[in-house]
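Comment thread on ticket #2218

A.B. wrote:
> Attaching the input chain for the structure job we discussed in standup.
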Amino acid sequence: MRYKNVKPDEILLAGISEQSLVNGPGLRKVYFSQGCTHHCDKCFNPETWPSFGGKKIKVSELCNTLKNEADYLDGITFSGGDPIEQYDKFVKIANVAKKNKLNIWLWTGYTWEELMNRTLMDKNLLSFIKLLDVIVDGRFVYKLKSDKCKFRGSSNQRLIDVKKTLKNKSVCEYKII
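C.D. wrote:
> Ran it. Output below, let me know if you need it in another format.
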C-alpha cells in the first residue's frame, strides 16, 4: 500500500485510544492505523480502509509521549486499518514499548502463515514481529462473529503467542487467563 505525502518520521493514523480495556489485557494505549486492503464485509472500522485520510503524526512525538505514559500502562495495541501496512513506522513505537516493559498486541487481517511468507522477502517485517507479544490474525468474517470471541471479532481469528510460535515453529495460541 502506498502512502502519499507521508514523511519518513510520520505515520498515518485513524486515531488513538488513550485508555482502553478491550483491546488486549489491562490498561492499554491503542494506535489505529489508517489503511487496509482487506475490506472485510461489515468491518468495525471501514473508515480506516483508505491510505489517505486519517492524520499524519510524527512518530518521534508518539514515542516521546509513550515514554512519559508507560508507567501507568500495561501495554499497547496496534489495530486498524491494518498496522502491517505501516509496520516500518510502528516498529519505532514498539521498540519504545519494549524498553518500557509494555506488552504489545497487534490486530491484522493477514494470517500468521501469510505474514511468515512475507518475511521471506522482507526480513525487517520479521524483526518487527519478534517485538510483538500477541498477534490477532485473520480477516474478520461476519458470519463467524460471536460474543464468545474475547479479543477477536470472529471465531476464525486466532490469538497467537508470538514468542512461543517462533520458538516452536508452529502456531501456539495465547491462553486467556
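A.B. wrote:
> Thanks. Noting for the ticket: The mean pLDDT is 93.
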